[in-house]
Amino acid sequence: MGYVLQLKNISKTFGEVAALHDVNFEVGDNEIVGLLGDNGAGKSTLVKIITGYHQPDPGGEVLWKGKRLDHFSVARAHAMGIEVVYQERALADKQSLWRNIFMGRELTTAGGKLDVRRMRAETLKLMQSAMGFTSSAITTESTVKTFSGGERQGVAITRALYFKAELVILDEPTMGLSLSETKKALDFVRSIRDAGKSAIFIDHNIFHVYPVADRIVVLDRGTIAGQFLKNELTLQELTDRLYAVAKTGNLSY
Amino acid sequence: MSSEETARPLSKSAQRGPVVRFLRKYALQLGIFAVALIVWVLFLIGAPRTFLSKEIYISFMSTTPFFALIAIPLTLVVITGEIDLSFASVMSFGMVGYDLVFVATGSVWLGFFACLAFGIAAGLINGLIVVKFGVPSLVATIGTWYLFRGVVLVITNGAGLGLTETTNTALHDIIVGRAFGVIPMQFFWTIAIGAVIWFFLNRHRFGAHVYLTGDNIESARLMGVNVGRVKILTFVIVGLVAAFAGFVVSTELLFYWPTVGDGYQLTTIASVFLGGTSVFGGTGTIFGTFVASFIIGAINAGIVASGLTNFWTQLIYGLIIVASVSLQTLIGRRLK
Ligand SMILES: Nc1ncnc2c1ncn2[C@@H]1O[C@H](COP(=O)(O)OP(=O)(O)OP(=O)(O)O)[C@@H](O)[C@H]1O
Ligand SMILES: [Mg+2]
Asked: Is B296 exposed, middle or buried (0-12, 13-18, 19+ CB in 10 A)?
C-alpha cells in the first residue's frame, strides 16, 4: 500500500513545552487512521503541522505522496487536497454563512474580485444537500454567531466536504454533539473511505473511533506510544491497553 | 437570494416581511442617516439664513474631506481589530517629501509623488512594527505619531513652505480646484476614494480577508488567510491616503505648516466609530464612516454659523456621538 502522507522524525517545541518529540506517522491510500491520546498529548499540534499551520522543528520531514515538502503552508496544503475540520471549528462569528464556507478560499473572477453570486448559490446548494439544517431561519446571509453547536460543526464539515480532498482530518468532530449529530459526523468519515480517500480521525471516545478506523495510533505526551491494525484486537482489548498507556506510557504492557 | 425563502417554510422573522428585513439589515446605516438628518434640521432651525444658503455647504465640502479622506481607510484598520493614531503626523510627513523634492527639482508633480511615497513608507513602518514585532497598534502608532512629527520638525526646523507656486498648475486644479467653479474637488476625491475602498472591502478578496482577520484572527490563520499581510496593507493604505490628505489641506491653504494634521485626530477617529465600526473588529462599513464624517463636519460648521462659541463644540460633539451610538445599538437590538 502506498502512503498519501508520511511524517518522519517530527518534533515541535513551544518555548519550554515539547508538544511532539520525534514522531513518525503515516496515512496510507484510502486508509482511515484513528488518532487517540490524552488531553495535551499533542494530537492537535500534529494536525497543525500536517496542515502547514505550524512549522516543525528542523530535522523532521513531511512527505506528500512520497515527495518531500519544503516551505509548507496552509495555502499549499489546501491546494494539494488536505482538508481539516478543526477542533476549534475555525469559524468567523460575525460573518455570513457563505463567507464562512469560503473562508480563505473565496471564489473570485479576474483580479481577485469576489464572485459573490456563485458563492451564495453554492452555499444554498450545500445547505440543502449537505448541512441538513432544520432551522428555517438560516439563510446564506445568516451570521454563524447564533448557530447551535451541531450547526457550527455542520458548517465546518461541509466546508471540508466541498473542497474535494485527498486527505481529510477531523479533530474531535463529535465534541459536544448529540447522538444524531455524532452519527452524521461518523457517516462522513465512512463516506471518505467509500470515496477512496484517506482520513485522520481524532476523538476521545474510542467507541466512535474503533468502528470507523482501519488503524489506530496512540499518542502519549508527544510521542507515539504504539499502533495496531483494528482487526488485531477487540474493542475490549483496546480499552484495557489505553488504560495501560495512561499508567505506563506504553501500549504493550 | 429570494429562492431560499420560497424553498423553505417562512420563519417568524422572515414572515415580518421585506420592510423589517431591510430595516434589520441596514439598521446601523439608517440610524446614522437619521442622526445626520436630525442634526441638519436642528441647524436649519437654529440658523435658517446660514443653512439655506449654499456657501455653508461649499465650505463644508471643502473642509470635511481633510479628515473624511483618512477616516475611510482608517475604517479598514479598525475592522482588522487594530488602530492607527499616527495619521495626523503622516499628513505632515508626506508634505516633507513634497518640500524636499520640490525644493530640489522645482516640479510640483514630482513633489506630489514624493509626498505619496513618504505616506506609503510611513504606513509600511507602522504595519511592520505591529505585525513583525507584535507591538499592539495602539502603542506602536502613538510612538510613530511622535516619531514622524519629530522627523518633520527636525528636517524643516519648524519652518513652513509657501505653496503659491502650485496655484496655476493642473495639479492644483485637479486636487483642490472648484468643479464648475463651485464644488471643491476634494469633495469628489473623498467620494472617489470612498468608492474604491468600498469596492475592495466588499467585492474583493482583500476586503473579505480584512473582515476575517478582525472577526477571528485564529480562524483566519487556520484557513490560510495571510493576516500579517492584510494588516500591513491596511496600514499602508492609511499612510498613503493620510499623505494625500496632507497635500489637500496644504494646497487648499497654499501653505505647508509642519504642524498640519494636528486637530484632526479626534474628528477622524470619531467618524469611524460614529459610523458604526466596532472597536472589537470584524464589522464596519465605508458608508457609515462617510456619512459620519459629514455629520461631524456639519457640527463644526453649524456651531460657528449658529453663533455659538467654539467652547460649545466639544459638548455638542460629545452629545451627538453618545446619542447616536446609543441609538444605533438600540435600533439594532430592537430589530433582532
Ligand atoms: N501555540 C502553542 N503555544 C504553546 N504551547 C502550545 C501551543 N499549542 C499547543 N501547545 C501545548 O502543546 C501540548 C499539546 O497540545 P495539543 O493541543 O496538541 O494537545 P491535544 O492532544 O490536541 O489535546 P486535546 O485532546 O486536549 O485537544 C499542550 O501541552 C499544549 O499546551
Ligand atoms: Mg486537540
From this structure: buried
Asked, for residue B19, whether it belongs to a domain, the answer is no
In a domain, B227, yes or no: yes
Task: Give chain B's domain count.
Answer: 1
Q: Considering every ligand atom, which ligand is closest to the CA of A21?
A: 1
Nearest CA to ligand 1 atom 7: A14
Provide the whole-model pTM.
0.90
Determine which of B198, B223, B225, B336 to mutate to test the interface with A (most A C-beta atoms within 10 Å): B223
Residue A162 in contact with residue A126, Cβ under 8 Å? yes
**Pocket around ligand 1: residues whose beta carbon is below 6 Å from it?**
A 14, 17, 19, 37, 39-45, 87
Nearest to B152 by CA among B251, B271, B250, B272: B250
Decide: B266 and B71 in contact? Cβ < 8 Å.
no
| Residue A251 in grid coordinates | 501500549
Ligand 1 atom, smallest distance to A15 CA: 4
Whether residue B63 is contained in a domain is answered as yes
A248 CA from centroid of ligand 1 (Å): 21
Convert the pLDDT of each residue in A79-97 to its tens digit: 999 999 998 889 999 999 9
Domains of chain A, with CATH numbers?
3-92+153-248 (3.40.50.300), 95-142 (no CATH)
For residue B326, the enclosing domain spans 24-334
Q: What CATH number is associated with residue B278?
A: 1.10.3470
- Model pLDDT for residues B46-62, shown as the tens digit of each residue: 888 888 888 888 888 99
pLDDT confidence tier of residue B331, bands split at 50, 70 and 90: low
| pLDDT grade for B13, boundaries at 50, 70 and 90 | very low
Flag whether B169 is in a domain.
Answer: yes
Please give the ipTM for the structure prediction. Answer: 0.91
B147-167: average pLDDT: 92
Contacts of A135 in chain B (CB under 8 A): 11
| Minimal-distance CA residue to ligand 1 atom 22 | A44
A124 neighbors B3 (Cβ within 8 angstroms)? yes
Q: Are strands A167-171 and A198-202 parallel, antiparallel or unpaired?
A: parallel
Residue of B274, B16, B240, B32 lying closest to B124 (CA atoms)? B240
**Of the given ranges (A177-181, B109-113, B115-119), which has the lowest mean pLDDT?**
A177-181
Report the C-alpha gap between B208 and A142 in whole angstroms: 16
Torsion from C-alpha of B289, B291, B294, B299, nearest 10 degrees: -100
**In chain A, whose CA is at the least distance from the CA of B14?**
A137
| Helix B108-132 / helix B137-156 crossing angle, nearest 10 deg | 150
Residues A1-23 have pLDDT tens digits of: 689 999 999 999 999 899 999 99
What are the grid coordinates assigned to A23, written together? 514522531
